[in-house]
């Protein structure tokens, strides 16, 4: 049997046909058009999936089930998205909508959890008992896999690792609290820190890198400046690494996972990011008598969400 | 069958004979004498247990197993305490020592985990799928129960909730990091904050409460001062409540438990502490679409550790 995996994002809908082992046979994407009514978005999610089934030379008889990774808080029992602020969903009957077009079981899960599950099924966390996947993007997504199952809390509202406060009364977070890890170690936070530093160093390397257009600063800019020997860039990167590491030490002290996979845009820096992060985490991890949790790049990239969503049926 | 539960503390060894339902038939305690060689301490643990068995009119034939809650990092596979800094243990063969006197299966677990498991078996978290027990004492102990099992991480080094940094670069913690929750919301932290405030308000209510002897300030003093209408005491309590709540919101966002049981010395303040804590936690919890985690006092007090240790065999 094959599985349809759909990764619903704010910008694009990505989908794939996935086999039992977590291999993607074929994948594709269409724009989300997040401003549209949910019925329109879900029609496109279904249509993309049906097209891929056809392109694989399969029929719906070959498909076991559909899995969807969505932003927000899903309720898989009811088949609904209770709430999302990324795409504005409130009590959206996602399963019902998809089943209008694809009469198969539909499982719904948070997108960060799907990515973590994908890394567990076919990526960097394969074969582990406990793993955590951290996605450094617009926010910080966290997914926790314990004994082959996604940990979500009593009503699917847990695993919000990005909304762990690491600085009481610190930076304002989108969730309403101040000082969340996400406000210090997401790509968005890194960009904010880089722009603030650039504004204070108007003739510096960072401003030269973006031809004086501060709005062009992205999550790569500070790293690029540091690579060029710029001390301002180096200071930003060091600060970012420190905040990222502090949150990761918390994750280690709380979960003691075998593996932490780091994904999302910022993780593209690879060892240039991870090597100093690892050093700090290992210095500060509470227990020195056990093997250190491995900190590695998420290996599946955007495919993790598709694979994890597709194989949701396997863990239920 | 009956179970022996031993709660090894820095000051006292407490033990009890416990039935299948988690009821204590008889309990007792002896001083730990923590400075002594571990063989002496464990001999006393065993002797206390054997005395209790006899006092219950039982023999070892009635005993299923022994469970021990110990400070530090246990390795139940090896039957050892890998490390503890509270009582100075390094690779101590606890199971072997106890079995010299009591030839029964011996399970070893961290003391905070035992307390959490006791609350799950017979206390405030009974019947829940996910619960967390927080002990506000010398440090902050955390115990996490998921689906009837103690969550400990890949090698028993997780669930160190007290060593979650909530203020990067904040107060020095005994673990070497700065800004751990424990450094702000343990009884020790509350006493430190009270003493600091008293030293600045030498003629105030707090100093009167301790007859001018700052060393007599304990975890109750600020609460007592607040109850008397003292603004300095009120400010300390408010600050303490805030830090306690910030950590609890983190716990909620990470685990989304059904119940959080609050134990340890400071929890004796009851609703005077918990009511304002609950208010802050519910204001700041990330997800508003699900039932709020209940925040309640741990109901078993010191018995939780004995009961949880005794019935460790049940969860394995």
UniProtKB/TrEMBL annotation, chains A, B:
Keywords: ATP-binding, Kinase, Nucleotide-binding, Transferase. The keyword Metal-binding does not apply. One of its GO terms (molecular function) is ATP binding. GO terms for biological process: glycolytic process. Its EC number is 2.7.1.2. NCBIfam families: ROK_glcA_fam. This is Glucokinase. It comes from Caldicellulosiruptor hydrothermalis (strain DSM 18901 / VKM B-2411 / 108).
